[in-house]
Amino acid sequence: MKLRLASSVTYDSIVDGPGLRTVIWTQGCKHNCTGCHNKQTHDFCGGFEVEVESIIDTLKDLRLQKGITLSGGDPFEQPDALVKICKEARTLGLDIWAYSGYTFEQLTDIKNERYFKWKNLLNEIDVLIDGKFVESKKSMLLKYRGSSNQRILDVKKSLQLKRAVLHVDYNEDMDIAK
User: Fold this and answer.
1) Distance of CA 119 to the CA centre of its chain
2) 79-91 and 115-122 are packed helices; what angle lies between their axes, rounded to 10 degrees?
3) What is the pLDDT of residues 121-178, one digit of tens each?
């Protein structure tokens, strides 16, 4: 199975979630948010393909990393490959964060034709930063997100309660840039 990446995996990131993180930059995004800082990741034919197994091998060699972060592009455009990677990350003791322009409500809408694939990926994620980047709501004071409309969600609790639940540890800045 292959995964289309926008760039090589980034090691030791401290801005894409807590602790040292490895970031997997997926290629392909439909949102086209004005002011996006990753416009090069939008083209679904851009970037390059890698075997999922090579990403898994990379994860097995990690040291001192708290977790992985799925970014891009939008990771939910390639859910099947990422589910496999996330399952392996979990066995290695890594937590999993993901950024998506889709909201939790969109990802869990059973009427959506991609619902089951998206749900499989959501089940592997611990924390989701959801929602499109909105340039008019941009703030450099926000931690782990670009605009104040984006939420940092506890995915396990959200799935259990069938509604978006803000993560108690990462939303202290919610009122900063509204």
Assistant:
1) 14
2) 20
3) 999 999 999 999 999 999 888 999 999 999 999 999 999 999 999 999 887 765 544 4
74-87 pLDDT, tens digit per residue, is 999 999 999 999 99
Query: DSSP class of residue 147?
Result: B
As a whole number of Å, the end-to-end CA separation of the chain is 42
Residue 162 structure tokens: 């069938």
Residue that is written with structure tokens 């940092």 in the block: 152
Give me the percent of the chain exceeding a pLDDT of 70: 97
